[in-house]
Each structure stands twice: as C-alpha cells, then as structure tokens.
Write a structure and sequence with these properties.
Chain lengths: ~675, ~625
C-alpha cells in the first residue's frame, strides 16, 4: 500500500498522476475524457498507468478524485427530476427567485430564464410554519405530508428536497418530514435544506438544496460504478472526492451531498497551485488557469485558499463553501469580432469551443480566436514539441485579415490587439479577486496553468505587477496533482443572528465547542487519526442590518481572553481593509458560527533535483522571428524537458512542452528551480 | 464652480486597442462601485433591492460610463464654491440638479477626481434612502402637495472638505431623519463606492497618461455618437408617430393623467416631444424628467440590440432633442411634490415602447405591471423601539419577442426582492404567502407575466402605506395579445372583515393579526393567444399559473382534450373581429363608469390645472428647447 493516485476528469482530458508515497516516484497519464460515462476514461487511464509502472491496484492506498460530473449535470441540464416540499404559501419560491432581471436598463427584453432544478409542477406545499425565532407557529400535519410524498413519488420524481421557511432557525419540521419519507420509502434520496445550508435566506437555501437533489442520483450512480469497477480491479484503499473548497470527502458523503463538490475541478487547480508555489517558497499567490473557453483565477494567502460562501453555476448562485474562484468567459477559443456599429475590437464572449476550434487547428474553424492570434504573432509555434497536433498558421492569418481590415491595422497588429485585450480582461479578473478585496497584487506570485495560462501569464503579470510568474511542470496536469495533496475538510455551522453587544463570550464558546465536537465526531467517523485532526472556528459578521457577512477567524483562546469586544474590533479592521471604511460606533452582528474540521493527509514526497549551472543553451531547439508589441525579434525556442534546475533564460523566449507553451517577454528573465518550475521575473 | 482647473481634452488619436482597454477599465470601475455599495450599505432597499446608480464622467461632466445620463454640468454651473481634491458634495433636491434625481429620497453624492491638481472627471452615485424625514416614515407621503411636505431637502453642499468630514452639516441632516444610523451608513457606503470609482480613474490616468486617457474618453463619446446616428436613421420614422397612456391617479383622488409622446426624425437628429401630456398634478405623482436622463433611456433601448457590449455614455446627446412643456406632469414647477414619481417614470417606458412599436411592431413588447409598488410599515413595538420597513414589489413582465414575460419579476434591472426570512427576522411581521396571481398575465402567443401576491400579517400595532398604480387602466397587450390584470389591495382584519385599500394611501392603522393582501398587476400578452401551443397552455395550467377557465376563454384550450381545443380555437377565430395593434382593454370611459363596481373604489375625478403652475404651450416649449439645443 505505498501508492497514491490522483485523477482529474476535465471536459477534454482525463489526467492521472501515480505517486509513490515514500520515494515520490511520479508517473503521468493523459487520456481523452469520455463524457457519456466518465468512469470509462478513468478506468482506461488507471489501467494504462498500472501497466506502465507494473503496479497493482492493491498497492494503491488512496484514490483521490476531482470530478465534474455534478457540474456538467447542471450546465447541461441533465440532472434528476426533483420533487420539492415547501411551506404553505411558498410553492413559487424557485419560480419567483429573487425577481431579478439583468442590466442594463431594458435587459429584461432579452433575458432568458432557465428552468429551476425543481419544477413548479413537482412542488407541493406542506401545512406547517416556524417563526424566524424557531418557534412553531403551526404544527406539522403528518398525514398531509404522507399524502403529498406518495403523490410525488408516484408521479415519477427521482429525488426529494424539503425546504421550509425559517428552517435555519429550527429544522424540527424538516427532520420530521424526512422521517416520514424514510418510513414510506426507505431508500429514496432526500435532501434537507437545513442539512445542506443551515443559513438564512429561503431562496438561496432552497436552490442549493434542490441543486443537491438534482445532481445526486447522477453522482451516486457514477461513484457506485467507479467503486465497483475499481474494486473489481483490486482496489482496497479509499476513494476520496475533492470538494469545492479544496478539501477531501469520502464517497459516502459525496453521494449524499454532491453539491459540495460542484467546483471540484477548479478547486484541484487551486490546491495544486498552492502546493507547487509552497515548495517554490511562495505562500501568497494568485492562480491563473486559462483554458479553451474560460479562465479561472483565485487568491491564496498564507498558503490557504480564500473560501467564498457562494458560487455561480451558469445562471444560478449556489451557496456552498468553495475556493473563491472568479471565472471569466474568455480563453484560447474566444472569438474576436468588430461590430460594424461601433468599430470596436471585441473578444468573446462567443467561443469556438473544441469543435471546430480555432482556425489554426485546421478542423474547419473560420472565426479568429485568441489561439489564432497567438499563432499569427508566433507565440505559439506551429509545431508543438511532442504535441499530437500540427497548427496551420496560414489559416490563422487568413481569419485575422478581416479584423485588421476593420481596424485599419495589419494582421500582426490586429493579432497583438486581440492579445492585449484578452490580457487586459485577465488582469481585470485578477483585480477582482485582489484589489477589490483590499489586496495589492504586487504582493503575490502568479501561478499559471491550464492549456493557455503560461502563454499569457507574463503579459498579465506585467499589467498587475505579480511576480514571479510560476509555471509548474506539465501545467495541464496541475489539477490532478491538487487532488493528491488535498486534506479532508468539512464544515459545521449554525445561524445565530445576534448583536455582539447582546451575546456573551460564554454563550458563543458553548456553541462553538458543540460545533467543534461535531467536527471531531465527523473526523472520527472518517477514520482520521487523532494526531491528524485539526479544527478551527470562524464567525460570519456584519454591521447591524447590513446584508452581507464577512467571515472572521477566531480561536477559543481569543474569545476567552478578550471577550466579544475583540470580535467587533477584528471585524472593523477587516471591513476597513475590504471597503476602505469602518463604523466603529455601529454595533456588529453575528450571523453564523462555524467549525471547520481538517483531517491532514500526509503529503507525498514529490521529486526534487540538484541545481546545475545557468547555461540553458542545450535546451534550445529552434530560433524564430516572433512579433512582440510591434517588433519582430529573433527568439529562442526551448524544449522544457531538457531544461535543468538552475538554468536561466533571457526573454524574449518560448518554452514548449507536450501540453503547454510558456512565453517569456523581453525585459524578463526566467530561472528553473529545484522542482523544475519556471520562475519568471522582470529584470 | 470657482477656481478649479478643468483639464483640457487634447485632440490626439487613440489607437483602437488602447481605447478598448480604457473602455474595459471604466466598465470594471463602474461595477466595482456597485459592489462596494451593496456590500456595505445597510438599508435593504439599496442592499437587497439595489436601488442605486453609479456614474463616471469626463472633466466637463459628461457621463462616460453609468446607467443614468449626467447632470453634473448643470449642477456645477450653479455651484458657487471652489472644489478641491478630497471634497464630497451631497444633494437630494431635484430642483437643484435639473431633475437628475427625481425625489428627495435619492441622495446624490459627487466626488471630483483630480489628477495632478486638474479636474479630470467626477465619480458619482445616488441611492434611495429608506427615510429622508418629513411627516411620514419613508418620506413619500401620498398626500403631499408641495416638496416641503415630503422631507429634508439638501441643496448641493460639501459633506467632506478636502478629506475632512463636515460633521456639523452631517449632524444637521441626520437630525432630520428617523434612522440616522442607517442613513449615515448608506451615505458612507455611497461615498466609499464613489471613492472606488475615483481610484480606478486615477490609475487609468497614471497608466496611459492624462492626455491619452482624456482623449480616450472623448473617443468613447464619439463612438457612441456615431453608433447612435445610424440607429436613429434605421429606427425612428421621419413622419411623426404618437402614443399615449395614463397613470391612474395622484393619490388625492384626481386622475387619470395622460402622458403623450410624439417622435420624428430629421436626418440623423431625432425629436421626442411630450406636448399633449397633462398639466402637473396636485399630488406627488409628478415626475421631474431630466432631458439627459430621457436621452439615455432612448439610447439604451436602441443600442442594446446592436452592440450590447458598448459603453453607454453621453456622446450621442447632441443628436436627440427632448421637448417637455414646463408645468406639465413631466416638468412640474417648483415647489410641486415629487415623492411618488415612480408611476410616471415607469409609464414613460410603456409610452416610449408603444411609440417605437408604431414603427417596428415585431420587435416590440407589451406593457408591464407599470410602476414600482411599495409597501411601508412602521410603528413602535412592545419594547418601545421604533420599527420601519419598506419593500419594493414587482409584477408581470410583458410578453416579449423572445418569449413569455417573467412572472413576478422586476422590470428595472438588478433589483431584488427581500427574503421572507430576512423580513421576519428583523421586523414584526409574518409573510403568509408569496406567490403570483393566477391568470393575471395577459394571454398571448407569448404570455404576459403574472403579478405578485404577497400576504403580510402584521404582528405589532402600526401604520402602513401603499404605493401602486395600474389599478384602473390595464397593462396593454400588443399584436393580438390581451391586457394583463390590474392590481388590488385587500386588508383582512383579524375578525375576518375585509376592506379594499386604494392603490396609494398612508397612515392606514393595522393591529396584530391583520393581513394585507398585496396584488400587483400582470404584464400584457404578445401576439395571438390562439397560436400558443396547446401543450404550453396545458403546462401553465399544471403549474397553476393559468386557470382551466382562462385557458378555455382566452387560449381556446380545453385541458386534456386536443380535439375540443382545436374546435374551440376555430370557433373563436371565426367569430372575432380583426384586432388592433394594441389592446388596452375597455375604453377609458367604460373603465371610469364601472370603476366602483369592478375595483370597489370610487373613480378618480378629472384633474384641474393649478393656477400657480400654468403649463407652457407646445409651441413655446419647442422653441425653447430647439433654441437651447442649437447653442
């Protein structure tokens, strides 16, 4: 039992890493994903890597998995038929949503509102009512519940959600209903809103709970298949799933609460980036994951990801703890165009997707994309080293011509313009997660990955001043390596809406300790050894009557020593940092209390090499004229596989490897570190 | 404005890519202003419902990005002080800013942006304050006859002087409102939002150099001018077309009030003439319409279809000419009451849409629920603490070319409802139900959205106010679509007795256990309901959004019987008359005659012009505006 497997299933590729827990010996496999049944792609790559290394599955102790099964079910509207039970009078909670229509003015004219995860036809009202203080206003009518549950199940719903008004204050009625459902149909999947999200705001809680029900049968089926097939192949170790907040959970929990894994993919990238940057000596970083259709960015500080309470899933805002990834709909496949009416150069939001893809792929694409622009200026060499695809620069130039014509520029200027605009958008996304939250991006390193990240990272870093740029080896596989290094994580929360000046620290401590016990129980159940159990507390706070909370980390010691005053003080400071002002005379309010349990997983020793000399010339494989901001410059092309630790590269330069290309701009220099990362800095 | 060095806008070329980058930077700045405000404001109206508006301008005060047109040049013309870095100006008086804000609840903040001691622009925002003093909580008394009866009126004054807060002035203002803490928080939040915008503009100046940045702003204004020029020629007819619609009453028993718009084009200049609109009202339903704001509304409608990514700005203003007679409902004379202008503000869009539909019916929508309905509730709870809540409600979105109108959604962008759990956690009320009104959406090939039904049960003695409209006239349907249902308010007392409440009222006493049933209007339908697929109608019935009776009557659908549906549809088609472009429901005469019978409320009486506020003639108004625009 000495190996660990990390598998990330993405839209296009399934990436797998096998690592020996003690020696750090590492193998990688990349196979095409199999969207119809993603477990097929996983099994193919598992078999391939086992054969390659002559290892048996019996020797694998941990199987760590990032999956997009849940995400895709939502994005492709292919989830289960969900039955919803609401409080009488609130049947249309999802139908009305928050009543919002998009901007600008008149945005409603073109608004397309997708169907909610539970249809109005499949929603029933329960005769009951709780007050916002958790008192029973109207008792639950069990007979009526039996009737509507039977009716819903008979009508063919596949999954049930119970979400009652004020269940954040008391979940008694929801639990009673669950009991009734289980009596009637013991194995029917039921999600309680107070389990998934015990927080105030009925629409968000109902939506999140219904989303859970919506993806649950699909995820359950997928994980059961996978467990079965891997078991047949001899796997005895555990399968763990990466949560959206970059922690791990067992398959048992993932089957019940799959919504917690809704951002599993991007979370793997952030976990991987943290690991890579941490080893390179950087604990404050911005992650930059640029793919074909979208780009994900996130901010991490002190080696920890920032966790958001809410994440956007297509049209829907789902409230689950997630790495605070900001996503923009721009990537290598984004299409450039010049609307006649304004003569402006626009990039995206339309994308050429994977098929036909950019024109340079030679698969019939006729729209000028960002990738085509990279080919035209020579940042992306037409023959990728070890790459399976050969690019067609002529096709790229041809589709770039109309853009140039419309702007009165030559094709190279037009291509450079497209890159400038995309880079600016990316920098804008990074500003959202840093500057807008009160952080200075110049204090952060930039970790670039994804197919296109390393090509744009240097230019983007120059705009926001985030150096060094860290490009890990095999940037396309970073998500899978994130799966390998994640820890177990779960949260236990309770809503307690109270002004800080009307609550005692003893009262808070008591609740926090209870939540802490829940966290410990969970870790015990998960079989996490005592010496690997860690838990911490945080409190969501705001000024009295504000609508948005900010999580404030606290310890039991701080609370005991300084009382609740210190909570207010700490909140004031954070408010000042985020928004530039504080209102010390206004009372603060507590909204939620939370314990976060973390079960540490021993990190495998990944390879490290001895530093050699600075001479990188043995890795030079070509020299080309490349266009940089209006000038053609003779530029060396390097083979990444031949670069050794300690090697230095003078920009401008291009480094190619099998799944990615790194561009180093003039005025910058790169160095290879002991872990084979490329570190780019301004000179 | 005195002794301020206003930056010159240099006449230099900006390359297209730099221009697009400046555009993106300004757009991001505007959304950052919003984000800062939402997260820090305290009143649910700004925070949950997003009743606020940001803007960034060039040195001359022209809006380069934002949602409303700019008002700054007019305001600064009459500002008799100097302006320095770190200053923050506040105003809440519509009569001091040409109607840029249209009632005293909107507190408008201006932050001058100085780069190397030159004024390079303004960052500005306004937000709706839950209370601004005056006789009633909410500062929107439905019985006000002048602006002095509404609340505190703040002329443009500095509340920060070179970074130092003018605490005495702030104290004076806050002493006049019911919840000073909330107003202070919202005011600081608006200032923080403006500061975020200021910061981004300074960054752009630093990065590109002041001259390139300013030339970029000019180029963005020019770009919109060019785009608008061709849109006007494509969409505005040369021959004048007119459309008229009504707001129902003024809260004091007068009404309905006509709003009439005539538009035409000459070359690439378009003319929008509100002559024919009724004289101003006695009650507070007057809407002091800023011409620039109206130009922006038109621009947004037209531009959105062709390049939705474009930056809305003031660049096209010289191409549009807006004529509004002084002394009319849309240009009331000082000191008319303005608090409840939301009905006329909303109707303006119905009228604009109707006028544009005369030229391009296929691209047009029906009418919606037609206002921003409010419910206000205040009193002292049993602990003796004052409570006050105001909620904006929504209704039926009109049937649209792209599909059905949404049920119970907001026609104004980005507004949201207040969660029931939030209302119940903070205020002494319980929401007995929050749903949509079955059948209230007008029938159509694309159905109009249903209005909202919200049932409030009050738990403490107090007083409520209601602001709504479209209780008398109907939200019209278009191209064969039927009108939506009207709004209504029913107060059910604890003992079961029921009373109809007017759509505009104040100081209605409520006791614990009383329930208000608040129903807003539906949206009109789009195109012939008999062409709506039978299965779509049946799905609406299954969802409870349309009743089987209405399915039969308006859609010719007998639920579950395909054959009977076909026969019924054929029969209705054979018997009905050729329809008009618009379906307004019964004639106004008939509506008024049957008012008591159908609504339970007396019909409003015809308004009489106010002797102290004579209305300018159409000719005079035209002459005034066109002479002014020539300059």
């Amino acid at each position: 039992m000495a190996y660990r497997l990390g598998v990330d299933v993405g839209g296009t590729f399934t990436d797998l890493l096998l690592v020996h827990e003690e020696t750090g010996d590492l193998s990688r496999v990349k196979t095409p994903s199999t969207p119809a049944d993603p477990s097929q792609g996983v099994l193919t790559s598992v078999k391939r890597v086992l054969k390659q290394r002559q290892v048996s599955l019996k020797d694998v102790s941990h199987f760590m998995h990032g999956t997009t099964v849940a995400t895709n079910a939502v994005l492709e509207s292919k989830g289960a038929r969900v039955g919803l039970l609401t409080t009488a009078g609130f049947k249309q909670v999802l139908h009305l949503a928050r009543s919002q229509t998009p901007g600008p003015l008149a945005g409603w004219i073109i608004m397309v509102k997708p169907d909610p995860p539970a249809a109005l036809e499949d929603t029933r009202e329960v005769q009951e009512r709780m007050s916002a203080q958790g008192d029973v206003v109207r008792a639950l009518d069990g007979d009526q519940v039996r009737e509507i549950v039977q009716d819903l199940v008979d009508s063919g719903v596949e999954s049930l959600t119970v979400s009652l008004i004020n269940s954040f204050a008391s979940s008694a009625h929801e639990r009673e209903i669950k009991k009734i459902i289980q009596e009637l149909h013991p194995d029917f999947p039921v999600t309680l809103s107070s389990d998934v999200l015990p927080e105030i705001r009925e629409y968000e809680r109902t939506l999140t709970a219904c989303m859970n029900s919506y993806v649950r049968p699909k995820v359950e089926g997928y994980l059961s298949n996978l467990e079965g097939s891997l078991g047949d192949l001899g796997l005895e170790g555990e399968i763990n799933i990466l949560r959206s907040d970059a922690g791990l959970m067992t398959t048992g929990l993932a089957k019940e609460n799959p919504i917690y894994a809704i951002l599993s993919g991007p979370a793997g990238g952030v976990a991987g980036a943290l690991h890579v940057a941490g080893r390179a000596g950087y604990s404050d970083l911005l992650t930059f994951d640029m793919g074909g259709t979208s780009t994900d960015v996130a901010l991490c500080q002190n080696g920890q990801p920032t966790i958001a309470r809410e994440t956007k899933l297509g049209y829907f805002r789902v409230k689950v703890p997630s790495v605070n990834v900001h996503s923009v709909g721009a990537g290598g496949g984004s299409i450039a165009h010049v609307p006649e009416i304004t003569g402006a150069l626009r990039v995206g939001p339309q994308s050429a997707g994977a098929d036909p893809g950019p024109a340079c792929y030679g698969k019939g694409g006729t729209d000028p994309t960002v990738t085509d622009a990279n080919v035209v200026v020579g940042h992306l060499p037409p023959q990728l080293l070890g790459g399976e695809m050969k690019l067609d620069p002529e096709a790229a130039t041809k589709v770039m011509q109309p853009i140039g014509d419309a702007l009165g520029l030559d094709v190279h200027q037009a291509a450079q313009g497209i890159l400038d605009i995309v880079n600016e958008n990316m920098a804008g996304a990074l500003r959202v997660v840093s500057v807008q939250r009160g952080y200075d991006p110049r204090d952060f390193a930039l970790v670039a990955f994804g197919g296109a990240g390393p090509m744009h990272a240097n230019a983007v870093a120059r705009l926001i001043g985030s150096f060094p740029v860290i490009v890990p080896p095999s940037p396309g596989l970073l998500c899978a390596s994130g799966d390998l290094v994640a820890d177990f994580r779960d949260e236990f929360a309770r809503t307690l809406i109270r002004r800080v000046d009307s609550v005692s620290s003893e009262e808070l401590l008591k609740i926090l300790e209870e939540l802490g016990e829940e966290a410990k129980d969970w870790m015990k159940r998960e079989g996490i050894a005592k010496d690997r159990q860690v838990y911490s507390f945080n409190v969501d706070m705001r000024y009295y009557r504000q609508g948005y909370e900010i999580p404030v980390d606290i310890t039991a010691e701080e609370l005991t020593a300084s009382g609740t005053d210190f909570l207010a003080e700490k909140f004031n400071q954070i408010h000042e940092q985020f928004y530039g002002f504080q209102m010390a005379e206004t009372p603060c309010e507590i909204v939620n209390l939370r314990a976060v349990g973390v079960g540490k997983v021993p990190v495998p020793q990944l390879p490290e090499s001895a530093v050699e000399g600075p001479d990188s010339s043995p890795a030079v494989v070509d020299e080309q004229r490349v266009y940089f901001q209006g000038d053609w410059i003779e530029t060396k092309v390097y083979d990444r596989a031949q670069l050794r630790p300690g090697n230095q590269i003078q920009g401008p330069a291009i480094v190619t490897e099998f799944d990615s290309t790194t561009v180093i701009l003039s005025g910058h220099a790169a160095e290879i570190d002991r872990y084979l990362n490329i570190l780019i800095n301004p000179e | 404005m005195k002794d301020v060095k206003i930056a010159e806008i240099p006449d230099i070329d900006v390359d297209p890519v730099t221009l697009d980058i400046i555009e993106g930077g300004l757009k991001n700045a505007r959304f950052e202003m919003d984000a800062v405000l939402f997260r820090t404001a305290m009143s649910p109206v700004i925070r949950e419902q997003h009743d606020e508006f940001p803007m960034l301008t060039d040195p001359r005060g022209r809006m380069v990005v934002g949602q409303f047109g700019s008002y700054i040049s007019e305001m600064m013309d009459s500002f008799d002080q100097t302006v320095k870095p770190g200053d923050v100006i506040l105003t809440s008086d519509p009569y001091h800013c040409g109607g840029a804000i249209s009632h005293i609840n909107d507190w408008l903040v201006l932050v001058p942006i100085f780069y190397e001691n030159e004024l390079v622009g303004w960052s500005s925002m306004f937000g709706h304050q839950m209370d601004a003093g005056g006789p009633l909580p909410g500062s929107l008394p439905t019985g006000a006859k002048t602006i002095f009866g509404e609340g505190i009126r703040i002329p443009p004054i500095k509340i920060f002087n070179q970074g130092e807060a003018e605490e005495n002035i702030i104290k004076l203002i806050l002493n006049n409102v019911r919840m000073p803490e909330m107003n202070r928080a919202d005011l600081l939040a608006i200032v923080a939002g403006c500061r975020a915008g200021e910061k981004r503009v300074l960054e752009l100046c630093k990065r590109f150099g002041k001259d390139l940045y300013l030339a970029g702003c000019q180029a963005l204004l020019d770009r919109t001018y060019k785009a608008m020029s061709s849109l006007i020629q494509q969409n505005i007819p040369e021959q004048p077309v007119s459309f008229e619609d009504w707001i129902d009453d003024d809260g004091l028993g007068h009404g309905p009030y006509k709003m009439k718009l005539t538009m035409w084009r000459k070359g690439d200049h378009a003319y929008f003439d509100w002559s024919g609109t009724d004289p101003q009202a006695v009650g507070p339903v007057n809407f002091y319409l800023n011409e620039g704001m109206f130009k922006m509304f038109i621009g947004v409608y037209l531009i959105m279809i062709f390049d939705p990514q474009i930056l809305f700005n003031d660049g096209f203003y010289p191409l549009l000419h807006v004529i509004i007679p002084d002394g009319s409902l849309l240009h009331p004379r000082f000191p008319s009451a303005l608090g409840c202008r939301t009905h006329a503000l909303t109707r303006l869009f119905d009228v604009l849409g109707g006028a544009l539909a005369r030229g391009a019916p296929e691209f047009s929508t029906a009418a919606g629920y037609g206002t921003s309905p409010y419910m206000l509730y205040s009193g002292w709870d049993r602990k003796g603490d004052f409570f006050y809540v105001m909620e904006i409600s929504y209704g039926g979105i009109p049937g649209r070319p792209i599909g059905d109108g949404m049920d119970g959604h907001s026609w104004w962008p980005l507004f949201e409802n207040i969660p029931t759990e939030y209302l119940e956690a903070y205020y002494p009320l319980r929401v007995d139900g929050y749903t949509t009104v079955t059948d209230s959406g007008g029938a159509g090939f694309h159905r109009g959205g249903n209005g909202i039904e919200k049932r409030y049960v009050y738990l403490e003695p107090g007083e409520i106010s209601i602001h709504d409209d479209r209780w008398l006239t109907y939200p019209w349907g278009i191209l064969g679509g039927k009108p939506g249902m009207r709004s209504e308010k029913i107060l059910v007392r604890q003992d079961g007795t029921q009373e109809r409440l007017p759509s505009k009222c104040d100081e209605v006493r409520v006791e614990p256990g009383d329930m208000l049933i608040y129903r807003t209007a539906g949206g009109g339908g789009w195109k012939d309901p008999l062409d709506r697929p039978v299965e779509t109608v049946e799905a609406d019935v299954a969802k409870g959004l349309v009743s089987p009776e209405k399915a039969q009557q308006d859609y010719g659908v007998v639920v579950g019987d395909q054959k009977a549906s076909q026969q019924l549809r054929d029969k209705i088609r054979a018997e009905r008359d050729e329809g008009e472009l618009f379906d307004f429901g019964p004639s106004l005469d008939e509506i008024l005659a049957r008012c008591q019978e159908t609504t339970g409320l007396p019909a409003p009486v015809a308004p009489v012009p106010l002797p102290w506020a004579p209305m300018e003639s159409a000719e005079e108004a035209r002459k005034r505006v066109l002479t002014q625009d020539d300059r």
